[in-house]
Design goal:
With 224 residues, this protein is mostly helical. The protein has 2 domains: 18-62, no CATH class; 66-220, no CATH class. The protein is 40% helix and 10% strand. The strands form 2 sheets. It has a 3-stranded antiparallel beta sheet, with no helix packed on it. A two-stranded antiparallel sheet has the order 1-2.
């Protein structure tokens, strides 16, 4: 391919910064953070060589004990509801309004926040479950209460009504089996460190849809 000639304008900058803002992913929760270089430097001073977002720093998820924090989310359901039940006009199952999805999100958040070992980031729909405080010893929450909270949050999305009872049962088993394994052995698949089951895994083969729902964020939830 021959070289192409372009006209380029060069102008002086007023500071020695390469950019007014810098974007970087949090080492722990993978949230994409956009901030000024000064803000990044201040966060880096608090955490050392690895970059953590302000949410994770604020909740002390940048310490070594974060290996006992399970990252999980229901955004696989939220994204599917939005992309298929709301946006897709040709979808032949139950239709949802934006307000329905918004209500499901608020209700599941209210349920989760009643449990003190659950921490919630509404921007990413991520839950951080602190297994440092879960167990059978004194001053620890019984594991069964963690499963109960997880089940109630799932029920807030009314999957058995919007989809069908079988799909809700399958989704619940994905959460409980993974949480049980993490509780007993602190294990998660290397490629799936975050527990985010998707409705698109239930008999669906659309890999693009699967990825969109797994990575669905609050900023994507817009009214159209």
């Amino acid at each position: 391919m021959p070289l192409q000639k372009y006209q380029v304008e060069v102008c002086p900058v007023e500071s020695d910064k390469l950019s007014e803002y810098v974007a970087k992913n949090c080492f722990f929760c993978h949230k994409l953070v956009k901030a000024s270089p000064e803000a990044f430097q201040s966060m880096q001073k608090l955490t050392g060589t690895k970059f953590y977002c302000s949410f994770c720093i604020r909740h002390n998820f940048h310490y070594r004990t974060n290996c006992n924090i399970l990252l999980m989310s229901y955004r696989g359901i939220i994204g599917y509801y939005y992309l298929k039940n709301y946006l897709d006009k040709h979808y032949n199952l139950k239709r949802l309004w934006w307000s329905d999805i918004d209500l499901f999100i608020k209700q599941h958040a209210e349920i989760g926040m009643t449990n003190p070992v659950f921490t919630y980031d509404p921007d990413t729909f991520m839950w951080f479950v602190d297994f440092n405080r879960i167990g059978v010893a004194g001053k620890k929450m019984p594991y069964e209460l963690v499963e109960q909270t997880t089940k109630k949050m799932l029920e807030a999305f009314k999957v058995k009504v919007v989809m069908n009872p079988y799909v809700e049962t399958q989704m619940l088993s994905k959460y409980t089996e993974a949480m049980k394994l993490f509780y007993e052995k602190r294990q998660r698949p290397p490629e799936k460190r975050m527990l985010i089951p998707t409705l698109s895994q239930q008999g669906q083969t659309d890999e693009g849809l699967l990825e969109k729902t797994r990575n669905f964020l609050k900023k994507h939830l817009v009214v159209v």
